[in-house]
């Protein structure tokens, strides 16, 4: 049985992206150059990048039994992401974002319909924990349910040798007060720039130093800050900072943070030390910004192998 | 075997409609009140209304084997429209219109992706003509192919008694020069206000009088002109005009012309004289303008029965 799978939990969304010459005038009737669909949501994007990086990955969440279902199933399959434990929910609508891209101005206008798809509950968390090396949570308004799932994982870990335990991570991205209860429930805590700024922190170092007191013993806070790079701080240890790695021309930053998280999880899963993992994650996120979507990452040399002793590592 | 079916041919489109509080600011990220999908395209809308009016109706066209297919199949089934002869085309994209509705201004902004779905060809026109009482064509850029289909129907009719013949109609809506070749190939020719204006006619009467010379012997030109009502002129006979019938409050005029055409076809199929058919069609189109979409027409008293002698009729 596979025991090294990475499980990502979050909320699924479909992005319907219209590539327009320019942003439309109100009440006009115009043609766009192209429309395309993209599976979205933070944990979904992270799953996609993990799969591209070569990790065995599963997504767990609710999926609406709506017109988008066929597209989503195909897309998960194309991406090589397992969805066997997902809950298909009847009589609800999928969250959808209409995204209007303007070639002229470079703007990205989003019209979001949050749909009526319910969040995954603790009752839905019916998985064989023995299959997973890592479980990652996109912090959701249903954080109280996610806390119960994290408790299940802690209970599962309690009887195991350190090497056999599941590592956990949570992402605090949107400024929702309800997410605060997740901060001391996982081994790695990803803090977004937006979340940090909403809490009064204006640099990545201030952010990790400000939040590290709230995480549990042995846990690490990680914060990526766009073109200012990223840093991480294990509780009681010094902060490690690394610079961003620019792709040259910025093409599309949508999902860059989710890409960073995927690359961090992948490298840490492979046994990388924090500094190597951060450097690798900044490299992958930088590459992503230089391309539309994620699939081009397949053709970039981004393999990551931990060095043999497992205590140090490097990207090659 | 059923012999009284109405067949409608055209191009299929999906409308993704976002009901917004206001038209979005460029580069903003906002929520909308609701998104909904609607099957669109002129002949599709006409089919929908024919089915609601109680006519046995079939749609014939190409359908993309794309993410929208599941929705479309369900929607045709819900609408009671037969699609058994449609051609499902792989590796192409469905025409999609994103429609942004603003509650504040009442505006309707359309961003259309024409997709890569091919038009139906004469080779695809593999139907048992014995099943149909009426065949209606939405004039398409592929008009030359539609001319061949109309010729097949004329050949089929040539050996039949008058009562057993298929009646044909064409709709000239968009100002495309290629549509002109259809005008003398059908029994009824629907001219849109836009098409008429593009040809220099500024009233419904001017339009039917201007176009009637171009139709074939025994054929009739019909023209609806929004709040100015509708008129019809059989070749060599006087023009008949009827006023519009207002629903009181105008809610949604999208597809009002397609509704008018459906009601005309339905009434004429039932043996109505032209004046009764026009009056009935203006009534149904007016009702449609007073509601969102078409489905509310189900709950309106719009039944139409021809009088017994078949030479005159009335809406009741």
UniProtKB/TrEMBL annotation, chains A, B:
Keywords: Kinase, Transferase
Organism lineage: Eukaryota, Metazoa, Spiralia, Lophotrochozoa, Brachiopoda
Protein's name in the database: Ketohexokinase
InterPro entries from the UniProt entry: Carboh/pur_kinase_PfkB_CS, Ketohexokinase-related, KHK, PfkB_dom, Ribokinase-like
Gene name for this UniProt entry: LOC106157428
Pfam families xref list: PfkB (PF00294)
Domain called Carbohydrate kinase PfkB: residue spans: 5-293
GO terms (BP aspect): fructose metabolic process
Entry GO MF terms: ketohexokinase activity
Superkingdom field: Eukaryota
Origin species: Lingula anatina
């Amino acid at each position: 049985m596979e025991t090294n799978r990475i499980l990502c939990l979050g909320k699924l969304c479909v992005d319907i992206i219209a590539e327009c010459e320019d942003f439309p005038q109100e009440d006009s009737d115009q043609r766009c150059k192209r429309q395309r669909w993209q599976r979205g949501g933070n944990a979904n994007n992270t799953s996609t990048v993990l799969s591209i990086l070569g990790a065995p990955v599963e997504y767990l969440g609710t999926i609406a039994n709506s017109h988008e279902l066929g597209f989503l199933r195909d897309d998960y399959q194309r991406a090589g992401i397992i969805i066997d434990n997902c809950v298909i929910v009847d009589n609800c609508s999928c969250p959808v974002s209409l995204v209007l891209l303007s070639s002229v101005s470079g703007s990205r206008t989003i019209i979001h319909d949050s749909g009526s798809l319910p969040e995954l509950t603790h009752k839905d968390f019916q998985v064989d924990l023995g299959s997973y090396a890592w479980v990652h949570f996109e912090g959701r308004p249903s954080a109280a349910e996610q806390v119960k799932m994290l408790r299940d994982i802690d209970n599962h870990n309690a009887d195991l040798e350190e090497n056999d335990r599941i590592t956990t991570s949570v992402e605090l991205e949107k400024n929702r007060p309800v997410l605060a209860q997740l901060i001391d429930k996982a081994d790695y805590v990803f803090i977004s720039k937006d979340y940090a700024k909403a809490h009064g922190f204006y640099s990545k170092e201030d952010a990790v130093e400000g939040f590290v007191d709230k995480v549990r013993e042995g846990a690490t806070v990680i914060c990526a800050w766009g073109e200012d790079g990223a840093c991480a701080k294990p509780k009681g240890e010094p902060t490690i900072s690394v610079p961003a790695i620019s792709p040259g021309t910025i093409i599309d930053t949508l999902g860059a943070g989710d890409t960073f998280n995927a690359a961090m999880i992948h490298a840490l899963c492979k046994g990388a030390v924090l500094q190597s993992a951060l450097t690798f994650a900044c490299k992958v996120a930088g590459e992503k910004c230089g391309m539309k979507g994620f699939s081009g990452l397949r053709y970039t040399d981004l393999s990551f192998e931990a060095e043999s002793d497992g205590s140090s590592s490097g990207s090659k």
